[in-house]
Amino acid sequence: MPARNMVMLLIGSLAALWSNASLTGQNLFRTRALFANPPPEYSTIPFWVWNDMLTDSMVLGTLHDLAGQNIRQVFVHVRPGLMTPYLSDEWFRLWKLALKEAERLDMKLWIYDENSYPSGFAGGLVPDAMPESRGRGLLFAESTNVPEWSETNLASFSMTASGYENITGSGRCEWLVRQCGADNCQRQARRLHRVPAVSD
């Protein structure tokens, strides 16, 4: 936005505030005071990185240091280097200690949603418990021959005069016939690959 437009917007906003009867006199004084010393919910929120073998004194000392700098709220953000096991009983004990002290210091304490990246993997706890949840990538490959099907294939398409034909089902079935026999082809395809049942 050009500087002239920004100045006009600011002047218009201030004029609207001054013309509003609720922001005159004492109310305007209180509004200025809030800008000078905002309550926790309107203050900045820095990250407080937890990446060590945490102790009570570290947690309490850091909160006091932040409060001494007029920091009114923080995000606890777990990062690589954390030696206190993430989401362990000790981690939750320290979290409760931090919450209690933050309340005493009139601070707000927020928890960042994850231990490192990507979101949802809980510092490796989720993929350890559910290997099938691991992220997967897609590789697009062109071939002049029908590719050999395997469990890692997602789909196969054949180029036609009008576009592409999805040949995934037949490729899967051919592969499954070799793996488990023709009688089990559709049942196994549905179980292994969630292919919808074909009605007769």
Describe the structure.
This protein is an alpha/beta fold and 200 residues long. The protein folds into 2 domains: 40-131, Transcription Regulator spoIIAA (2-Layer Sandwich), CATH 3.30.750; 136-200, no CATH class. The chain has 7 helices and 5 strands, in the order ααβαβαβαββαα. It has helices at residues 3-19, 26-36, 56-68, 89-104, 125-129, 168-180, 185-193, and strands spanning 47-50, 73-78, 108-115, 157-160, 163-166. The strands form 2 sheets. It has a 3-stranded parallel sheet, with helices on one face. Helix 3 packs parallel to helix 4 and helix 6 (168-180) packs across helix 7. The N and C termini lie far apart (64 Å). The relative contact order is 0.07. Mean pLDDT is 75; it is low at 188-200.
What is the CATH top level name of the largest domain?
Alpha Beta
Number of domains: 2
Shape: elongated
* Poorly predicted parts: 188-200
Which sequence of strands runs across the widest sheet? 1-2-3
What is the count of helical runs?
A: 7
| Rg over CA atoms | 30 Å
Helix content: 40-55%
- How does CATH name the architecture of the largest domain? 2-Layer Sandwich
CATH topology of the largest domain: Transcription Regulator spoIIAA
Structural category: alpha/beta
Mean pLDDT: 75
How many strands appear in the DSSP assignment?
5
Major sheet, described briefly? 3 strands, parallel
Percentage beta strand? 5-15%
What is the H-and-E element order?
HHEHEHEHEEHH
Give the terminus-to-terminus CA distance: 64 Å
